[in-house]
Amino acid sequence: MASPFDPDAFVIAADVHILDIEPKISRSLELPVELNFAQLHEVLQAAFGWTDSHLHQFNIGGLIVGAPEFDEDGLSDHRTFEATEIRLQDLVFPYDEDDRLRILYEYDFGDSWRHRIVMRRIPAQAGITYPKCVAGSRSRPPEDVGGPSGYFGFLEAWHDAAHEEHKAMRRWAGRKFDPEHVDIEAANNAIVKALRLARGGYRFRRQRR
Q1: Which of 23, 69, 121, 136 has CA 20 to 30 A from 1's CA?
Q2: DSSP calls for 78-103
Q3: Closest to 33 (Cα-Cα) out of 146, 130, 114
């Protein structure tokens, strides 16, 4: 049995879903403990298929973690801690296997896609490369659709051929969009690519160079 005090013996199982949407849009991830929060952001973007076109932040028990440069004017009422400096192994995980650690990840402060992340420690498996997406349900909403309420209205038009905006919504979302579809293999390929491009941090910082 793996020792609960040996960080190399464990990975983090993270069950993630977007709040205020039913049926749930979710992804189940397995993450290495050395992953920092900039890398976790990249994993979440890739697993859900978001385009990283908007701001984001993590709320860890009231501690805000993300990219501090997005608040260079100091207009926010809180300090944003640098995401590359905080790793999953820095968090205190309960040793009781029935306990969970909960984190809130928000993407796009306009649409406010709030993701609840419920984490627990599980034994690492030999020969497995982490991080990886192991399960999921439904496609993420189109970018800029207007948050959960806007997505509800979008789906009404998308599903109803008699709706006056049906054709417009179908064109806008694209032929490949299917709200019930999730491709786990594509998600894992996207995760590998995103982390390779990010090189331990944020992709957007490297793209600025």
Answers
A1: 136
A2: SPEEEGGG-BGGGS---SSTT--EEE
A3: 130
In a 3-state reduction of DSSP, which class is residue 17?
strand
Residue with tokens 């020792």: 3
pLDDT block averages, 10 residues each, the chain of length 209: 64 97 97 97 98 96 94 76 96 72 96 97 92 98 97 96 95 94 98 96 83
d(CA 12, CA 5): 14
pLDDT tens readout for residues 9-53: 899 999 999 999 999 999 999 999 999 999 999 999 999 999 999
DSSP H/E element including 106: strand 101-107
- 114 & 170 share domain: no
| Residue 2 falls inside a structural domain | no
Give the count of beta carbons closer than 10 Å to the beta carbon of residue 81.
16
Check if the beta carbon of residue 133 is closer than 8 Å to that of residue 89: no
CATH code where residue 199 lies: 3.10.290.30
Neighbours of 33 (CB within 10 A): 19
23 and 87 in one domain? yes
74 and 84, same domain (yes or no):
yes
Q: Where are the alpha helices (DSSP H) in 101-201?
A: 147-159, 166-173, 184-198
Specify whether 60 is located in the same domain as 78.
Answer: yes
Our CA angle for 174, 175, 176, nearest 5°, is 95
Structural domain harbouring 163: 141-181
